Inverse folding.
């Protein structure tokens, strides 16, 4: 009887009590700690978005005035970018899955992994504190000299919060790179790795190389504000454009921290739902690395109208187009995989479809913005807002939710209810498009971003957008309910409810603390579905 | 960096559960440390970029401001740091060959040299306060380039301050190591923490090797090339 009970022990039941969670070094538990934290931040950032959309329901500034409105969009951006989107896929799904997918017992540095969560919580708490004290109004971009000299809001606390949180991201990236290099199961060569691992590896490169630069940039803003040092303030010969260069050197690649791991999720979902090897596996893997590398060379497209030289602008424009190539490689290869696949249309696949469509729109409008001539016209308008929301919300969050549905049975041992889940994917897709497509039109017609009031002719499109936002909010609330519901009432599942390939499906659901009872040995390429059905494996 | 010793005092070489071999564990620590040093390069890189931008735009002011720095003190500090890198390397070597007493002595010598460096830095910072060369309300610099000279001193304090902070952290790490080395924790089979701290110390040293000519010798450079 005792043996029977011991057999059932998994990472969730291995230990009880608050202390066993707060001091855990198990990557799977840390992933759940991150999940709880970023979900909180998501709804907090969402609350700011609700207020923004409510204010924009009417042309006049009736709900809030400009000062409050500035704080609303700043807090929305800060929380969503630094405390939700950047950690979302790597710190939750990546933390949970990277060791499982490569057949390791944990990440290389389990205690650094826990430290990263604590650092994240401290940074997040400081940012919430700043919001409670009265907020910050610089925009999430903290442009100098306004942020370093003139703003009377809580810039310092927010900056310190973001500075600290950066180290959580660095530690996660460092941990992933070392783990992927040193701890793969026997037989798991680089080109047998799941594409999710490739994508997280590429994103980790950005976290490790980029985050320190934004850290030092924020540090310089901080010392300029606190001690009157002179780096960015033009009054004493400082250079505000230097800040923009340093800031975007990280913050543009940061977009790829959000989207690359999500692309990894989509590769997994497409392979599992079509029961095929991803078309052009090697190219998709290398495209992740190419996006990470090229992503570091395009920051200047944020400075087309900031007094950057025309020739620099041309080069940055060209390189920004170049990023479109590996991104398109991925989209085309997913589509080619879908062709003549044994496609099933369960919830994760619906989210994946949502991702592919919305990411394509976001990517193509990104190319429009990379054209210097058009960018001068729509710079700082709602066109830009719509574009990056199609990437960050339509792309990153769709993929994140798709991944959450796909691996939920692995994380909890229980299946979510299919019908409301399908409904949520549909509602989110419709709500998202209703919210953000009108913003493309608004931007093209000339409505600037970051204003609380606007001319009357823009009202119809703004009302559509706000209406869409309420649909979207409903769509995001749905999974909260049925995920929690499924923890207790969801159908229990076995090791591999999807019949999918990948080492994470070999172990029990939920996995035991050390992941595998016996270290798996890999003998076939990733997504070798063909073997199962008696057909020939396409060797890569 | 994994330090198994903290969990298993007396058995510092213990293998953590998630590694298969001691070699794999050490490889992971080494790769992790090098990655960390790369993040440090990027961290300082932001400041070097600010320096380059300022130097190109205001080289006259940067030259004048650079000439006020004490080259002798800077050169002494450079020598001190290079010597400390030598004692650090000797400490790692002593750990490799298992000479436990020597590890402690070389670590203590490194700490002493590190503190000497910081002491000289305090003297230099004090001079800046006396001469009103600290950016801010009381900044004063003669001549028409005062404002841009303030940018030079901002970068000077930013870079040397950040470097000094890394030195302080390094001295702290060395002190912990010295205590553990005194207890005999490190053997030829397990001396990863000594080696990793050594890497860190050399890195901080190398940053100074760049800072010294860029900040202190800039005036002399401009004088020779005539720019």
């Amino acid at each position: 009887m005792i043996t029977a009970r011991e057999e059932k022990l998994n990472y969730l039941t291995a230990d009880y009590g608050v202390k066993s969670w707060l001091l855990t070094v198990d990557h799977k538990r840390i992933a759940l700690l991150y999940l709880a934290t970023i979900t909180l931040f998501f709804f907090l950032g969402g609350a700011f978005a609700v207020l923004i959309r409510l204010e924009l329901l009417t042309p006049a500034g009736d709900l809030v005035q400009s000062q409050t409105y500035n704080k609303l969009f700043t807090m929305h951006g800060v929380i969503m970018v630094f405390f939700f989107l950047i950690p979302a896929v790597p710190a939750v799904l990546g933390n949970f899955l990277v060791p499982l997918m490569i057949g390791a017992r944990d990440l290389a540095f389990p205690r650094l992994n826990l430290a990263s969560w604590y650092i994240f919580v401290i940074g997040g708490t400081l940012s919430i504190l700043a919001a409670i004290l009265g907020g910050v109004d610089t925009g999430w971009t903290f442009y100098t000299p306004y942020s370093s000299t003139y703003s009377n809001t809580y810039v310092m606390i927010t900056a310190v919060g973001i500075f600290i949180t950066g180290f959580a991201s660095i530690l996660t990236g460092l941990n992933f790179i070392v783990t992927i290099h040193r701890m793969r199961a026997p037989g798991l060569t680089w080109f047998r790795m799941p594409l999710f691992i490739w994508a997280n590896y590429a994103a980790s490169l950005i976290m490790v190389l980029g985050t320190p630069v934004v850290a030092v940039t924020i540090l310089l803003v901080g010392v300029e504000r606190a001690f009157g040092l002179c780096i960015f303030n033009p009054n004493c010969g400082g250079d505000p454009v230097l800040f923009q260069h340093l800031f975007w050197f990280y913050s543009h690649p940061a977009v790829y921290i959000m989207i690359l791991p999500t692309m990894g999720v989509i590769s997994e979902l497409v392979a599992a739902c079509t029961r095929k090897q991803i078309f052009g596996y090697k190219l998709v893997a290398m495209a992740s690395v190419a996006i990470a590398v090229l992503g570091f060379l395009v920051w200047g497209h944020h400075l087309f109208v900031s007094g950057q030289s025309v020739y620099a602008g041309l080069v940055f424009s060209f390189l920004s187009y170049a990023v479109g190539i590996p991104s398109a490689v991925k989209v085309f290869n997913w589509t080619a995989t879908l062709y003549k696949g044994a496609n099933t249309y369960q919830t994760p696949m619906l989210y994946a479809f949502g991702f592919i469509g919305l990411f394509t729109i976001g990517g193509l409008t990104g190319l429009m913005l990379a054209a210097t001539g058009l960018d001068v016209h729509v710079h700082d308008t709602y066109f830009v807002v719509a574009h990056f929301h199609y990437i960050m919300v339509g792309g990153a969050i769709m993929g994140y939710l798709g991944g959450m549905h796909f691996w939920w049975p692995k994380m909890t041992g229980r299946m979510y209810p299919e019908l409301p889940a399908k409904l949520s994917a549909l509602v989110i897709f419709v709500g998202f498009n209703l919210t953000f497509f009108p913003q493309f039109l608004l931007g093209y017609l000339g409505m600037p971003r970051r204003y609380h009031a606007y001319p009357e002719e823009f009202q119809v499109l703004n009302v559509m957008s706000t209406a869409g936002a309420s649909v979207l909010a409903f769509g995001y609330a749905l999974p909260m309910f049925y995920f929690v519901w499924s923890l207790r009432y969801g159908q229990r599942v076995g090791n591999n409810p999807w019949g999918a390939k990948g080492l994470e499906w070999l172990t029990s659901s939920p996995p035991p603390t050390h992941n595998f009872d016996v270290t798996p040995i890999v003998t076939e390429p990733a997504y070798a579905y063909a073997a199962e059905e008696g057909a020939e494996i396409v060797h890569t | 960096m994994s330090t198994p010793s903290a969990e298993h005092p007396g058995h510092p070489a213990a293998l953590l559960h998630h590694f298969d071999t001691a070699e794999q564990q050490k490889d992971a620590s080494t790769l992790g440390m090098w990655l960390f040093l790369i993040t440090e390069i990027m961290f300082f890189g932001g400041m070097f970029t600010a320096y380059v931008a300022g130097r190109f735009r205001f080289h006259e002011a940067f030259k004048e401001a650079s000439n006020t720095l004490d080259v002798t003190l800077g050169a002494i500090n450079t020598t001190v740091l290079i010597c400390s890198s030598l004692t650090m390397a000797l400490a790692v070597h002593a750990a490799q060959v298992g000479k436990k007493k020597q590890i402690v002595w070389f670590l203590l010598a490194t700490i002493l040299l590190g503190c000497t460096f910081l002491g000289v830095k305090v003297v230099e910072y004090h001079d800046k306060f006396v001469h009103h060369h600290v950016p801010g309300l009381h900044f004063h610099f003669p001549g028409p380039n005062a404002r841009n000279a303030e940018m030079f001193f901002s970068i000077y304090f930013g870079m040397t301050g950040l470097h000094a902070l890394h030195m302080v952290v390094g001295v702290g790490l060395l002190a912990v190591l010295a205590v553990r080395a005194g207890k005999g924790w490190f053997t030829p089979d397990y001396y990863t923490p000594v080696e990793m701290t050594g890497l860190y110390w050399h890195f901080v040293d190398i940053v100074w090797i760049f800072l010294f000519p860029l900040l202190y010798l800039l005036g002399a450079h401009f004088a020779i090339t005539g720019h």
